[in-house]
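Notebook p. 47: complex prediction with FE2/S2 (inorganic) cluster.
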Amino acid sequence: MFAPWSESVASDIIDRHRSREGPLLPILHALQAAFGCIPRPALPFVARALNLTRAEVHGVVSFYHDFREEPAGRQVLKLCRAEACQSMGAEALARQILDHFGVDWGATTADGRLTIEATYCLGLCACAPAALLDGEPLGRLTPNLLQEFVP
Ligand code: FES
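Predicted complex, structure tokens below:
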């Protein structure tokens, strides 16, 4: 269970990491581990603490796909959209899966069950189309195979 946004929790996290070289990414990862996402009020808070602009922090958060603005669903499916998977029909498969769950990229189903995100090469190209479900690799993905894991 993730904590609700709290300046004091964020402050502790920042204090723990601010002396590291390049503290921004470790702080953002730790914030996401604590809150399940990078809460919007965290951006100016982190910027102030590290003497950065809010735009700089936002730029980093939006650059990395793994940072979320909202907590993820109970399961997270990352579908590969890179070249090898594309050549094996990943885009059409992804569209089928997104339509089946009624969500778009990066969104969570209304019941909070599943978040579907894009990823770009998992190193599983030989098993394309590939995906990660809660960090576990799935190769030669089909909607039928996915149903075994997300009924
Ligand atoms: S391109 Fe999809 S796993 Fe490499």
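Notes: The first helix runs from residue 7 to 17. The chain has a mean pLDDT of 94.
Next step: compare against the earlier run before touching the bench.
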